[in-house]
Specification:
Elements lengths: L4 H7 L1 H6 L7 H36 L2 E6 L6 H12 L1 H7 L3 H28 L3 H10 L8 H6 L18 H4 L9 H15 L2 H9 L13 E2 L3 H13 L15 H10 L3 H12 L1 H9 L1 H8 L7 H7 L2 H4 L8 H6 L3 E2 L2 E10 L2 E10 L18 E7 L15 H14 L7 E7 L1 H9 L4 H4 L10 H18 L7 E5 L5 H25 L1
Helix pairs in contact: 4-5, 4-24, 6-7, 6-10, 6-11, 6-17, 10-15, 20-23
The structure holds guanosine-5'-triphosphate and magnesium ion.
Amino acid sequence: MMRTSSIRSQDDPLSLALRPPPTETDSDRQRRLQHEAEARRISEQIDEDLRVEREKLKKSRSDVKLLLLGQAESGKSTLQKQFQLMYSPASLESERMSWRTVVYFNVVRSIKKILTTLESFDDIDDGTDSQSTLERQEYGDDLPPRSPSVQQSVHSSQIGVALSPPSPVSPADGNQPNSPIKGHVTAIADLRRRLLPLTNTEPQLADRLSGGVAVSGSGKGEVYVRSGWQARTIQKGQKMIGRRSKKSEVPLELTNERSATALSVLDADPLVDDVATMLDQSRDEIKTLWDHPIVRALIGSRKLKLDEWAEFFLNDIARISARNYVPSTDDILHARIQTMGVAEHIFDVDIHGKTVTWHLFDVGGARGQRHSWVPYFDDANAIIFVSPISAFDQYLEEDPRTNRIDDSLQLFTQICSNQLLKKVHLVLFLNKTDILRKKLERGLSVSKYILSYGDRPNEYDSVVQYFRAHFLQVHRRNNENRRVLYTHLTSVVDTKATQSIIGNVRDSIFRGYLQSAALV
Ligand SMILES: Nc1nc2c(ncn2[C@@H]2O[C@H](COP(=O)(O)OP(=O)(O)OP(=O)(O)O)[C@@H](O)[C@H]2O)c(=O)[nH]1
Ligand SMILES: [Mg+2]
């Protein structure tokens, strides 16, 4: 016999349990109804939250997820800044003054490196430790050490790199009794003494940027930055304001809206404010040091190798050390700070009348950071792989035996052959072409570092063609899906050119995105 629903509801133990007791009073009833109404409201709220979550998930599935991959210092974060400048200029504007800390840090660290290098030549002058000092200076930070065991272990799986370090300079000119620094020792010692308060701020600036977190993995002991550092540097500075009575000097020409934000932040960090004052007061000393014939000679002979961005800032020290300094967009693009882990940036991109949310994942490229990329491979739509083709004469900070072009090719091989990424839209940026040009113009020989380059012309077109061919070969060998590789020659500090390339990349990614959406 079939049971009717009414019979079932009468037998249902749950309905029996929920039925009000026969002794229920009017006030009990009121309370019960109130509780039931509240329970219903909460339940409806949960349903609504779940609905919103589901919507979000559905929407995020239709968002574009773009990974920026490549070795450390390849230009990923700089490219991210170009995306930000194009699709979220207001957010870059609101961070503008925080970049002052990074620029100051880059400047102070460069000054310190110049002085440390000069100090080692003081030692030569004193007749101490001359040979080891010269070895160190001659090969700088970016050439492998010369021990036979290291020479044996230097190898290349991708490209014929030099098995032993080339000798860019003769040690003789620094090692003689008439060492170039002789006669300048007192003047340089005086500059060092006067710049000491400024160079002493380096660890504090580093601490401000890294949030006090020391991370291993780069080999250089550089400062790593987690996302959100801009807010952190401001907050930390603001906490300290109460403890200080001295107010910062107010820049005079800052009058517009942007400058109002700038002003409030300028006031915010006493440490950065102190560094600004010191820079302002040390401007002449920094300029004298930077223009000093000994420093020029050491840079010319490659005994002093500064980071690429050092020259950009030190050449313009009068502007940067001004008391009312506000970082320009070019300064922000040149400012260097290492990324830690993976930083997500979200933009709304309007294309052909449709707004699509893009999630840009900017990763830390040093070897110790690469394990954190993998969780982002699963649902990536596109990758821009950034390779600095100017780095043919440089070796990894984290492994001084590995040539940077070779490392980049090895990394590109891993990305091209990764099963999780087989269907991902792939774009290759052969970056830092401006630096490549300058190196070749200065006469730096590619075949000295990349033996397989042989006697090909040491000219821009030929070098680019050679490196590009190697990347295309890696792609061809790992391309059973017949995926297209979009290649661009870039200098991502060049805003106009990069934004036009970003437009192309956006269109090509979007075409692939529409096709895959149509298949779903
Ligand atoms: N001249 C020049 N400098 C560049 C170019 N691309 C990047 N740089 C500079 O190189 C430095 C390193 O660039 P980043 O964008 O920080 O490198 P990254 O790939 O994010 O490095 P990690 O965060 O360590 O993985 C910065 O000072 C940039 O301004 C370029 O095409 N030309
Ligand atoms: Mg970075």
